[in-house]
Amino acid sequence: MTRAELIRQIKEKRSFLCVGLDTDLTKIPQHLLDDEDPIYSFNKAIIEATADLCVAYKPNIAFYECYGVKGWESLQKTWAALPKDCFSIADAKRGDIGNTSGRYAKAFFDEQASGLGFDSITIAPYMGKDSVTPFLEFGDKWAIVLALTSNAGSLDFQNFENNAGLQLFEQVIDKVNTWGTPDNLMYVVGATRGEAFLKIREHAPDHFLLVPGVGAQGGSLEDVCRYGMNKDCGLLVNSTRAIIYASQGRDFAERARAEALSLQKEMEKELLKAGIIS
Ligand SMILES: O=C(O)c1cc(=O)[nH]c(=O)n1[C@@H]1O[C@H](COP(=O)(O)O)[C@@H](O)[C@H]1O
Predict the structure, then answer these.
(1) Does any ligand 1 atom lie closer than 6 A to the CB of residue 180?
(2) What fold, for 3-274?
(3) Which residue intervals define the domain Orotidine 5'-phosphate decarboxylase in the entry (predicted)?
């Protein structure tokens, strides 16, 4: 999906919501466990209940690969069930020497080879240029590079300052900016980082940011928008557990929809406030 198509979706749906699909057999409703593929049944119901309210879906690959071959099958079926107007994110956090990154790109982008044709993949940039650029050589596919993450451990490394007073996440963005463009690169910035979005926008004014951490991790959507929104919106805000596990009963899809709708309504207000939609 191109940047222009993504922006059009945001305006049409009045939403920049990304629904996470971190589907855990111990958390999904019990009655689905008798299905042939409970993970797929759950995801399909969540997708059908939320497709008009969100612009992206993000399956976290760990929740599939932990079940081996069956998990990969559930992932493939889930990817195939994603609405074509939604941006798809393989949250795989890959990155290795160039030769190996090329294979990871094939695994998640090349539908002919793997059965998976995600629009984008999350990347850990620690190994540098040759570990990231193979993901940027696949037509209109995107690399979403970790910059400032939402977890407590993010401050173990990501805020180290160099002699010029730049924190590591700022240096990462400056460097990675030279490998791609706002048409094929996004950055991950945790919603729990509030005012840090001001700094992020000094280094990446035009890029889209994937923002996990609202909902279960307590990040503020209002702060994310206040400090992080740009003229095209420039945000994909993810919520996973707060949506998909809103209920563990038979009404799970209905309750997931209600949670997604409440976020979409808040997002619509922010888009109106910023003059991005009218
Ligand atoms: O790259 C990510 O998606 C990610 C980066 C980050 O900084 N923090 C973070 O929580 N995530 C992912 O975003 C999702 C957050 O899920 P919830 O906390 O349930 O909304 C999980 O799949 C995490 O792996």
Answers:
(1) no
(2) TIM Barrel (3.20.20)
(3) 16-256
Contact 59 CB / ligand 1 (< 6 Å): no
269 catalytic? Reply is no
Atom of ligand 1 nearest to the CA of 214: 20
Q: Which of 44, 93, 106, 175 is catalytic?
A: 93
pLDDT of the chain along its 278 residues, tens only? 999 999 999 999 999 999 999 999 999 999 999 999 999 999 999 999 999 999 999 999 999 999 999 999 999 999 999 999 999 999 999 999 999 999 999 999 999 999 999 999 999 999 999 999 999 999 899 999 999 999 999 999 999 999 999 999 999 999 999 999 999 999 999 999 888 999 999 999 999 999 999 999 999 999 999 999 999 999 999 999 999 999 999 999 999 999 999 999 999 999 999 999 99
Q: Is the CB of 213 under 6 A from ligand 1?
A: yes
d(CA 272, CA 278): 6
ipTM value of the model? 0.98
| Separation of CA 212 and ligand 1 centre (Å) | 5
**CB-ligand 1 contact for 81 (6 Å cutoff):** no
